[in-house]
Design a protein that fits this description.
Blueprint (H helix, E strand, L loop, with lengths): L1 H29 L3 H24 L8 H24 L7 H25 L16 H31 L2 H16 L9 H23 L2
Helix pairs in contact: 1-2, 1-7, 2-3, 3-4, 3-5, 4-5, 5-6, 6-7
Length: 220
């Protein structure tokens, strides 16, 4: 049942992400603002990532390819999407462009390199597996690593958009901000097996908020 719900909610998230990607591309075609292209790529990566999850939940991806597929998913939908949004939101935090580049590079470096090490290099039991309070495996270690990076990053992104909404009143700011704050909070229940169905459903709702905010932003 949980796998079916994961597949369905991931399919919905992927479709929504692809649609918003198209909205940003159409907006970019009318007015070639760099930000619109960055957002379109962010939604595209999120859509591709969740398409991979649909294939996993449907048992189309064989067991031997599960770990590489999961690594690709968490990096496309995590490092890719969150990294691009973090880059896009940073002007709301500071005008120092060099600081934006440094923070995004550190985030993506820790995320991509760390997840690759846990997934493909380090054994199940290693000194760094202390980050994982559950049974150690390469997949589990990698998952805990990216979740523990995503939580603070998502809160920063969410807070920044909410702050922008408070200053400007832009409705897209509150929708995008709430989506990231909601997602970061949901990650705290992600490890609890009994709450997985709730996590999948509420995560999809957070994607809806993000999509709604994205569409409003694309129209500006």
């Amino acid at each position: 049942m949980a796998d079916l719900l994961l597949g369905v909610t991931s399919l919905i998230s992927a479709i929504v992400a692809y649609l918003v990607c198209v909205v940003f591309l159409l907006a970019y075609n009318k007015d070639r603002k760099t930000g619109r292209m960055l957002w379109s790529i962010a939604f595209l990566l999120y859509g591709i990532g969740h398409t991979i999850v649909v294939l996993i939940a449907s048992d189309i991806i064989i067991a031997e390819a599960l770990l590489p597929a999961m690594w690709l998913y968490v990096n496309l939908a995590g490092a890719g999407t969150t990294g691009l949004v973090l880059y896009a939101v940073f002007p709301f935090i500071t005008e120092k462009k060099w600081l934006r580049s440094v923070v995004v590079i550190i985030f993506m470096g820790l995320y991509v390199i760390g997840s690759a090490l846990f997934a493909f290099v380090l054994p199940d039991e290693n000194i760094f597996a202390i980050i994982n309070p559950t049974a150690h495996s390469q997949l589990s270690n990698m998952s805990w690593w990216v979740v523990e990076i995503l939580i603070p990053a998502s809160y920063v992104v969410g807070y920044s958009f909410l702050k922008h909404y408070k200053i400007t009143g832009a409705k897209w700011g509150i929708l995008i901000g709430l989506s990231f704050v909601m997602y970061a909070t949901l990650l705290f229940i992600w490890p609890i097996a009994e709450l997985k169905p709730i996590f999948y459903v509420l995560r999809t709702l957070s994607v809806g908020l993000l999509a709604g905010g994205g569409i409003l932003l694309a129209r500006e």
